[in-house]
Amino acid sequence: MSGIYVHIPFCKQKCTYCDFASYPHETGKADLYFGCLYREMKGRAESLKDYGFDTVYFGGGTPSFVDPKYIVGGMKQLRNHYRIKDGAEITIEMNPGTVTAEKLALYKKAGFNRFSVGLQSADDETLRKLNRIHTVRDFLDAAALLKGENFSADVLIGLEGQTEEDVKKSIDLAADAGASHVSMYALKPEEGTPMFGKYLNGDLPSEDETADLYDFGVKHLAEKGFERYEISNFAKPGFQSAHNLNYWHRGQYIGFGVSASSFIGERRFTNTESIDEYTACILRNRVAEIFSEEIEGDERMFEYVMLALRTSEGVNKRDFASKFGVSFDERFKTALHDTAKCLSVTEERVSVLPEYLFVQNQIVVHFMN
Ligand code: SF4
């Protein structure tokens, strides 16, 4: 499988926990940015002419914040220069405070068939403290417009003062509004964000408290009919995100725009996070990469295992053997022994037991040598 990611680095304002490449004060550069984005799309087309793409994902930032003409133009460029397969999953991220019927109609006409909505919390006071631009009412209005569509909602765990009842309310709000998919993320306070100050002050739940809230959320999502298929992702049957699964299957993807990452052939590369540097490079007909690495030898195997163990399906042993010419059980005999209590092991598969998925990163290190 192959996917396309497009980064839209504009937001109305910055959320207190955000360290993504999003620049509320640079929205005046949208014309220049999108001109360069389209140029980058065109510029890479020749080298990717043999690819057929199964998924497209417009993320950010807040793609739904910018004038929809830019999004429609982006899809047009992609279709002009790339083979987007029939039935491709085409997703756009939306902030509930920016969704309108007119925008949705334009997105759907351009081919978008999956909508990822940032709910985060079902409590207006919490949303205000996070500096989100939307209210619970905005989410309900957006969900009403999305009735019958395939849409996902993001929920945050580990917020100041958050209780199990709060987690339940957020999940119920998303589920009852018709979401077919929920991404439930545990907050990681990043240095340089206002949220990091709260973390240093001890205002946030401890790691153990967050883990307990997360466990509670997992159970409640199951009660609402959402199956966990990756550490932070839950879907009604048939509504898993093909785009994200491609990442975890170590599939190929090309990313366009600032901070976008790509994995093509065995090369991983990432664009600059700076809009100015990005546009300067593209205008000079240069790539805007600030990082590039060829993945070689055992690294490929480690990546494959690390990514597969994020998912509920885990490592398919037969697929592993055919890709790497070695039996998974033989190659990782010691790691399998050392992490046995955290794993489900069958003839065909190895996966991390659901109760250990939250600490999957501590388990996979055993498979890194
Ligand atoms: S909407 Fe998303 S990308 Fe924009 S500031 Fe908030 S968290 Fe960051």
Main β-sheet: number of strands, strand sense, barrel status?
9 strands, mixed
Note the run of SSEs as H and E: EHEHEHEHHEHEHHEEHEEEHEHEHHHEEH
What's the domain count? 2
Mean pLDDT: 97
Number of E-state strands: 15
Say what oligomer this is.
single chain
H/I helix tally = 15
Strand arrangement, major sheet:
7-8-6-5-4-3-2-1-9
- Span from first to last CA? 28 Å
CATH H level of the largest domain: which superfamily? Aldolase class I
Name the overall outline: globular
According to CATH, the fold-level topology of the largest domain is TIM Barrel
Radius of gyration: 21 Å
| Beta strand % | 15-25%
**Helix content percent band:** 25-40%
List keywords for this structure.
binds iron/sulfur cluster, Arc Repressor Mutant, subunit A, globular, 15 helices, 23% strand, TIM Barrel, 369 residues, 38% helix
